Amino acid sequence: MTLLFDGRFTTTPDFSAYNRIELSPSGDDQPPYAGGVLGQYEIVTDPVGTDPVAKLTAISSTLARTEMRPFQKDIVSGGPDFGELWYAWWDLFPADWVDEIPGPANAESSLLSGTKDIIAQGHAYDDVADSGHYPQFAMYVQGQRIKFLRTYDTAATTTLVAPNLTVHGSWPLVKMVWIEWVLHVNWAASSNGFFHLYKDRRLVYSETGAPNTYNDTAGPFFKTGFYKYYGPLSPITRVRYSKGVVIGDSTSSYLEVTGHSALEAATIRRTT
Known about the structure:
Radius of gyration: 18 Å
Distance between the termini: 18 Å
CATH class: Mainly Beta
Order of helices and strands: EEEEEEEEEEEEEEEEH
Number of domains: 1
CATH architecture: Sandwich
CATH topology: Jelly Rolls
Number of strands: 16
Low-confidence stretches: none
Largest sheet: 9 strands, antiparallel
Number of helices: 1
């Protein structure tokens, strides 16, 4: 079993393991400041414990981004079938988190409506000829719920903003409680793909034998934090906490990326 990246702040209590911290409107820190930047990304004490964790803050009135990105690219091999990875990450929403309730004009499928906080992304590395498009995986907060969307495209050139878009999940946003997420995925723009998402050790979404990313030359990358377009009623400041990100290769496991076993397992179809 092999860990490709261990960005847990209990392992290294600073940001030095990460490739960059993506920031808007100020611009990325690449590499990040190891000790963080006050009011943007900082190492603090767990609000419900004693361990070091990251405090991530987004402040804007139009577009804000504060995202931790482990790698430039998670997989260096070419597509359309990029390969298998395990991802683990942890979220905590503070007690003073303001629930931003969407209005009737906020389409479920729109990430630009100003009522969604994107908190994790598996993003494509677009080819030059592609149009700008959604990430293949985006987890977001909408009102008092946590959901995620998926897109993919098997065509060599992507011309749509959100091809094959689907929305999944609807879990209550509980404040001051850590959420553990694990994604076991074979990134592929073909029927060789699989996608298994766990929440708090339980399998909550599973798909096998289907495409789940874009037919690009370069492989995808993961990041977590905040990415938000602001609406007229959006709170100016957003804060949440992270224990970090762990990435394992195809030989890894739930146990290796989290330190404990899943309570439910997925059936995986692998191709040789």
